[in-house]
Amino acid sequence: MILKHPEKRKIVSLKGAVQISSSTFFVYTDNYGKTFLKSGKDEKLQKNAFKNMVDLNPAIKGLLKKYKIKPSVDTKTLKELAGGHMNDTCNIAMGIYSILSEPLKKEIDKAIIKEASMLHDLGKVLIPSKILNKPAKLNVKEREIMNIHSTLGYELLKTQNIKEETLELIKYHHQNLKKSGYPALEEGNTPPSIGVQIISTADKYSALREARVYRRRLNRLEALLILYKEVREGKILADVYDALVKYAEKFDT
After folding, report:
1. SS3 for 154?
2. Which fold has domain 73-251?
3. Could you give the CA distance from residue 32 to residue 88 in angstroms, rounded to a whole number?
4. What integer pLDDT is reported at residue 46 of this predicted model?
């Protein structure tokens, strides 16, 4: 009798993201050493990859259990984010970075900004669609659940060999200079880095320029005025805002 060795199970890991022809593609590798790109359309692969991420990190299951969220992956959300908001945020973030002064550029690696902005909202694939796409204002409990998406994104990618600097930007992309964003910064932490400022500002501007189920798409001036209010409140660095204005005037017509 010939005994067959059990076939090794294929495990897919997410290694990062790249932009090709103005679209975001996720970089995956498997345990056979193969590397490949996916745009978010291969639902089976996406679900396997994210299931692997959840299984590798008990903290994710703990978070989902705390908020009574069923651990299921919304691949439709991933596809929409890759082709829309995350890609758009990346373009804006890179535009802001290119206009900043050289001393500020030296504070953060350009490649870190690019990858973090393409992956910043990945945690939303675990947020229930009834909350993510609710056609009305979220209640307090729903807002609390929505706000964990940045932590979920951080935890999902923590086991995927993503650089620590990238992970920090993903985790704190909803923080601000007043430290009034989420998740809360640990006691003694300095204000968010210039990298967080760039991605946070780009993320907000992109969101304001999109039509949402609960409001119309804002025009460029309306979006910039809302963000200028945050500059006056000390939440956004003036240099980052000025770079956004120059970017928007040239590329967001």
Report:
1. helix
2. Hypothetical protein af1432 (1.10.3210)
3. 33
4. 76
Q: Is the pLDDT of residue 42 over 90?
A: no
- Among residues 165, 154, 151, which one has the least CA distance to residue 114? 165
Chain centre distance of CA 80: 13
Q: Is 138 exposed, middle or buried (CB count within 10 Å of its CB: 0-12, 13-18, 19+)?
A: middle
Contact 116, 16 (CB under 8 A): no
Confidence bin at 80 (pLDDT 50/70/90): confident
Residue 50, amino acid: F
Peptide bond into 183 cis (omega under 30): yes
Q: What is the pLDDT of residues 6-30, one digit of tens each?
A: 445 566 677 777 665 556 667 777 7
Beta strands in the chain (DSSP E): 12-20, 23-30, 35-38
Lowest mean pLDDT among 74-83, 159-168, 169-178: 74-83
Nearest to 17 by CA among 91, 107, 101, 119: 119
Could you identify the residue written with the tokens 């998740």? Answer: 183
